[in-house]
Structures are given as structure tokens and as C-alpha cells.
Amino acid sequence: MKFLIRWFLNHIPRKYIQLFAQFATRLIALFYLGHRVECTVCGKHYRKFLPYGYINSRTNALCPHCLSLERHRLIELYLRQKTDFYTSKPALLHVAPELCFIKRFEAALGDRYTTADLESPLAKVKMDVQAIPFPDETFDVIFCNHILEHVENDLTAMRELCRVLKTGGWGIILSPIDDIDTTYENPDIVEPEERKKHFGQHDHLRRYGRDYAQRLASGGFTVVEDRFVETLPPETVQRYALPANEIIYIVKKSPR
Fold first, then answer.
1. pTM for this structure?
2. Which residues of 38-71 are buried (b: 16+ CB within 10 A; e: fewer)?
3. Which letter does DSSP use for residue 244 in this model?
4. Architecture of 84-232+243-252 per CATH?
5. Distance CA 168, CA 42 (A)
6. Residue 136 to residue 119: CA distance in whole angstroms
7. pLDDT < 70 regions, the chain
8. For 147-185, how does the pLDDT look when each residue is reduced to its tens digit (9 = 90+)?
9. First-last CA distance in the chain
10. Domain map of the chain by residue range?
């Protein structure tokens, strides 16, 4: 199963995976029936989740029903336990919307929910995050997860996200973070195989380091590094298959 999923991730365009993967995984789910793990997003439970990863597959990662990954299950738990997201009905901009969240957020927010992306067939608005086609101070909340490592000018994208966020608003902007002090990028590396070697994935343009929060702050945000998962009981982390060391980067737009 690890090899099969890894092959699809590396050989099938992302937009097709987004459209059709859920139908295949729901059939596979029949072989994973059980009660050992549970998805915080869709509520389904299995003996374990599917493996997932472009290079080194992570075990117990992908929910076969809604396609949530470890970070999505953590975000869902965070939204429920530490925010008023589901009760305040904010105007939300969701960049490159994850399939596992779309129906859930639509049900909660209605027409206050905007999905946007340059290529994703799941998004309603075609948009380059480096040139967001919305006025200043449009959204109460923004979600943009595992996108900035794909963007040519991530600092421009950060400034754009900050621009359309209302003063007093907040967001979650996650990216893969490596155990390095300073973000590594090299615009001269353009070949997919070389990018995979240097940045970990063929379509990544950089490896973020421990300076990630500083980069977000340079875009105009106030940044909070929330180690929410470390506050949870071990049995909760195990039950929902959460990422043990994931930092949730909360961005806020403070009055100037």
C-alpha cells in the first residue's frame, strides 16, 4: 500500500488526485475496518489509517474516508477546543482547500466561506496567492496550509494574505518545517529531480527552517507558535493519530 500511494502521489497530477482519490480510498477502507483510530474531521474509525508520503511514507496517516492527514486532524481539534470558529461564523478565505474540510466548512459558514487556488478543481475562485483579487480587510480568518513552499515569492504571498485579513483577524498558515536554523532556497534549482533532492518534493521551492515564524512576521503578521499537541494526553494523540511535534502557526493582524 505504501508503494502504491507513493507512486500515485509522484506520477498523477495533484488536481486529478484531488478529484478521484476519495473514491478509491473508500473502497480500500473496507480492509481497514476497526476502532483503534478515529478521525476528528469525519468521525470515522479504523484499525489504522492509510500510509502517506511522496518519498518516505508515514504509517497511520491518511483517513480513507475524508482524506484528512495528521495535521488536518490536529487543526480540527484546535478549532474546536481553542477557537470560536464554528460558533462565530467568520468570513473565511481558504487557500488551496483541503477536501476533508470543504463540506464541513460550507455547512458551518455558508456563503461566508471562500475557497481559492491557482489550479485546484476544488476551489471556487481561481487565484494566485501572490496577487489575491480581494480588497483590503475582507476576511476575518485565513487558512493557507502547505502552500507557501510551492510559491515563487512566498514573502509577497504572506503580505497579500495579511492585506486581505481584517485588523483583529487571525489565521493558520502551516508549512513543512525542517530541523535547520534558516530557510534554504535556491532559485537556480529548477529541475524536478533536483528540487526533490534539495527541497524534499519535486514541486517545492524551499525548505523552511526554524525562522519560519520570522518570515511570516516579515509579511506583516503577529505570529504565535502554538504547541497545542503537546498539551494533549498521549492517548488522544494516539487515538487521532496526531503529529507529535507539529507547531500550529497562528497569524494575527494587529492594529498598526
1. 0.90
2. bbbbbebbbeebbbbbeeebbebbbbbbbbbbbb
3. T
4. 3-Layer(aba) Sandwich (3.40)
5. 30
6. 23
7. 1-20, 23
8. 999 999 999 999 999 999 999 999 999 999 999 999 999
9. 51
10. 2-68, 84-232+243-252
